[in-house]
Design brief:
Layout: E1 3-7, H1 10-20, E2 29-33, H2 40-50, E3 65-69, E4 78-83, H3 90-96, H4 98-101, E5 106-111, H5 117-120, E6 125-131, E7 137-142, H6 144-147, H7 150-157
The structure holds adenosine-5'-triphosphate and magnesium ion.
The site of magnesium ion has 5 residues, from helix 2.
Length: about 160
Amino acid sequence: MTWRRYCATAADCAAAGKAFAPVLRIGDIVLLTGRLGAGKTTFVQGVARGLGVSERVTSPTFTMVREHDCTNAMGIETLHHCDLYRVESLGEVLDLALGELVEEYGVALVEWGELASSVFGRDVLTIDVQVDKTEGRNLLVDGALAEERRDELNRWASA
Ligand SMILES: Nc1ncnc2c1ncn2[C@@H]1O[C@H](COP(=O)(O)OP(=O)(O)OP(=O)(O)O)[C@@H](O)[C@H]1O
Ligand SMILES: [Mg+2]
């Protein structure tokens, strides 16, 4: 099953990210896909607000991963924000050891996540950001983990 939420503006996209935070659980890996400038970082900035990150969240393109402290009801303590745009080999993705990092009360949101899907296997959430003709965005959520979060995702998609 796929859940969809339409975002007419960048502010809507950030709001959709903020509303997505309660869907998350410790250990989650979220793979974000969508063309250059689709709105992946904008969505992550909203998720960060929803997770109670107080510092500014910017694109981690040149560092590959940035960590942000969180305070929230889900008990998630760290947001690992990754951007694999410049990744040159799967070895680099493996070196990030995201699967281990998220076990320490963390979650990972990975831009250009399709470049790592073979590393993380099926137990992920995927969010595809699709740009329509009017600059609106459709956020499409699926993945094996999504099936276990039906109630939360139904709520998210109907807002
Ligand atoms: N409906 C919309 N939703 C999200 N962003 C929008 C929307 N309309 C316009 N924008 C603009 O599109 C841009 C999205 O940039 P953002 O950095 O979030 O994309 P990205 O997918 O992370 O890009 P990159 O591939 O470079 O990492 C922003 O400048 C934002 O203001
Ligand atoms: Mg980005």
